[in-house]
Write the structure tokens for this entry.
Amino acid sequence: MSVRTYFHVDMDAFFVSVEELFDPSLKGKPVVVGGRPNERGVVSAASYAARKFGVHSALPLRTAYKLCPQAIFVDGHPERYRECSQQVFDVLHAFSPLVEMASIDEAYVDMTGTERLYGPPLKAAHLLHERMKTATRLNCSIGIAASRLVAKITSDQAKPNGVLWVIPGHEAAFLAPLDVRKVPGVGKVTEQNLHALGIRKVGDLARLEDAFLEERFGKWGLALAGKSRGIDAGGWFDTEIGEDTGPKSISHEHTFSEDTAEVAQLESTLARLCEMVGRRLREHGLHARTIALKLRYSDFSTITRAHSVGRPTQLDIELYEEIRLLFRRNWKPGAAVRLLGVNTSSFEEETEQMDLIGEARHERWKHALAAADKLRDRFGESAVSLAASMRGKFRERTHENPAGLPGKKPER
DNA sequence: TCTGGGGTCCTAGGACCC
DNA sequence: TCTGGGGTCCTAGGACCC
């Protein structure tokens, strides 16, 4: 098999950098994206100035405030990030057609066989780096290697705003001195398990027998053995670049600013979550067979309860009927709830069958929801709401029912 | 420290079928 | 009446990623 060349392009402090485009006065200052310092929630991104104080993503906002009270706390703007992410993709795609966005702020580019066009890898990477800066006004770091795994680890080592190449054949030497935690897929738990075995560096891992790792960690251990030697093994690293598979699940969840045990508040929140999920299902032209409720109590204990339905659906009201049933069967009445979530999966594409099945009620809702989706496009997410049509004194970001949705009260 | 929201993948047990 | 052997689907939970 011939040697391939992969770039891993990772945007530097992406959310913070995008916020700086909208408010240049933020530049160079300690900035925390994610919310107010007294809110429930965690840091989505921290500027390099804020990181000097120990602030990093996933840190609770209240903790971030204690570490760095002078930081500027800003709310996240997902639409801005999606738009900039699209610009990043456009730059990459114009550069080389084999691009796969791995998340909103990072991508793999298969650069194999582009030497005649762009020259050797380092030269090509610097050209791409420059084009990215010119087109998006954002900095990125680029890792270059013969496997995607090593390219990803390399871009991390290149940060911030750098380009780094691991020459084929030098993977093991490059990886050996790094902490095992640097290997994608090794998180807190696996790191602890490895430490318990006296394994701290990737080099320690690479010296072990495959059989030993397989015995200790199963299938995952075998993939880990390959990773320690820089081989794309296991999980999505094995897939081809550029193939666009649709989503496998669509979900929304909400953490209350204060825990609550009020049924009206809980159920109207579930209704709102079902609307958000239903809308996205319709956008993607998908019908879900499996609908799941997520419930987190004050003590952070969390359960999920799922049900698969005979007829896949994309309708808010049908999602809500299932979810409410799951909720009523599983919620310990009176127990304060911290978080609610609605998840859908086992998708089926739209079929003629589904349209033919549509009995009157089904069709009414379908048309009403299409109208509601249009209204939301024009006036925003809170313009129309099933939650608003529910009884109960509690209302959250909703008002009366301007679309005239059928049915005042969703009853079975 | 007091812990978001959106995902993916893996494991494991039980039901059910042949 | 002492206990098959898959295969597949479903559910629940957990690790991990950005």
In short: Residues 177 and 235 of chain A are 24 Å apart (CA to CA).
